[in-house]
TrEMBL record:
Taxonomic source organism: Punica granatum (Pomegranate)
Transmembrane segments: none
Protein name (record): RNase H type-1 domain-containing protein
SUPFAM superfamilies per the UniProt record, alphabetical: Ribonuclease H-like
Domain RNase H type-1 stretches: 61-193
Pfam families recorded: RVT_3
PANTHER family for this protein: RIBONUCLEASE H, RNASE H TYPE-1 DOMAIN-CONTAINING PROTEIN
Length: 259
C-alpha cells in the first residue's frame, strides 16, 4: 500500500488519476463467454468408472488394541483411569487411587504406565495409545526433553515398557473426547478405598427406556395393552374406566397402532 501511494503522488503531475479496480461480477463473465464461444465438438463421456466407490483412503482401518488414559489431581485426592479396548470392541477398565503426593504430570505418567503394564499382561503386541497429556507424548516422541528430576525415572521406565510392543503409536486427544478415562480417574480420586471395599470390574449398560416399563404385569390374565387394543378395535373406552382413566389412556394410546 505504501508503494501504491508513492506512485499515485508521482503520477499527479501528468494528470493521471489512479482508480482502484472494481470486482468483476459474475454476469460480466457470463456475457463474455456468450459473446466469444469456444468451438469444441468433443462429446461428453458420461461413463464414470468405479462410481460405486464412495471414498478412497490410503490408510487401512485399524482394528487392533486401543488404550485411553487420564490422570486427575484435585482437592479430594489423585486418581488414574485407563480404558483398554479389545479388537472385538470389549472394554477393559483399570482405575487406581494414588496414595502419595504427586503433580499432574506424575499422575499422567502413572496412568500411562499402568495402562501399558495391563496391556503387557494381556499379551498385546500392537497398541494405539490416546490421551490428553501433551507432556507425556512429546517427551516420548523426543520432541521435548525430560528435565524435571521427578519425571526422569518415570520416562526411563516408560521407554522400557514400550520396548515390549512390536508396534505402538501415541495420539494426542482433547480432554472432551477422553471423558470415559477421565471419569474413571475422577471416581478413583474421590473414593476412599480400603482392602475391605475393593471394587470389582464395572459393567456399563445403555438403558433405552424408563425402568418402570419393565415392571408392567398382566392384570386378571390380560396383557398390559388390553385396554389400548380395545380402544383401537371398538373406538370406545372400556366400560369400567372413569373420566380420569380416559384422560390417561388417550395420550398413551396415541403412541401405538394395530398391526
Amino acid at each position: 500500500m505504501r508503494i501504491i501511494a508513492k506512485w499515485r503522488c508521482q503520477l499527479t503531475e501528468y494528470d493521471i488519476e489512479y482508480v482502484p479496480r472494481t470486482l468483476v461480477k459474475g454476469q460480466a463473465i457470463a456475457d463474455h463467454l456468450a459473446e466469444f464461444p469456444i468451438d469444441d465438438d468433443t462429446p461428453i463421456n458420461s461413463n464414470f468408472p468405479d462410481e460405486e466407490i464412495l471414498q478412497v483412503s490410503d490408510e487401512e482401518e485399524t482394528t487392533g488394541w486401543k488404550m485411553y488414559f487420564d490422570g486427575v489431581v484435585n482437592s479430594t485426592g489423585s486418581g488414574i483411569g485407563v480404558v483398554l479396548i479389545y479388537p472385538e470392541g470389549r472394554h477393559f477398565l483399570v482405575a487406581s487411587k494414588i496414595d502419595f503426593p504427586c503433580t499432574n504430570n506424575i499422575a499422567e505418567y502413572e496412568t500411562c504406565i499402568l495402562g501399558l503394564q495391563a496391556a503387557i499382561d494381556l499379551k498385546v503386541k500392537e497398541l494405539e495409545v490416546f490421551g490428553d497429556s501433551m507432556l507425556t507424548f512429546f517427551q516420548t516422541l523426543k520432541q521435548w526433553k525430560t528435565k524435571d528430576p521427578k519425571l526422569v525415572p518415570y520416562h526411563k521406565y516408560f521407554e522400557e515398557l514400550v520396548e515390549n510392543f512390536e508396534k505402538v503409536s501415541f495420539t494426542y486427544m482433547p480432554r472432551m473426547k477422553n471423558q470415559f478415562a477421565g471419569a474413571l480417574a475422577s471416581l478413583a480420586s474421590m473414593v476412599s478405598i480400603t482392602e475391605e471395599n475393593l471394587i470389582e470390574p464395572l459393567e456399563f449398560e445403555i438403558t433405552q427406556g424408563p425402568a418402570h416399563c419393565d415392571m408392567i404385569e398382566a392384570v386378571d390374565g390380560k396383557p398390559w395393552y388390553a385396554d389400548i387394543k380395545h380402544l383401537f378395535q371398538t373406538g370406545q373406552f372400556p366400560a369400567f374406566t372413569d373420566r380420569h382413566d380416559q384422560r390417561t389412556l388417550r395420550p398413551i394410546a396415541a403412541h401405538f397402532f394395530l398391526s
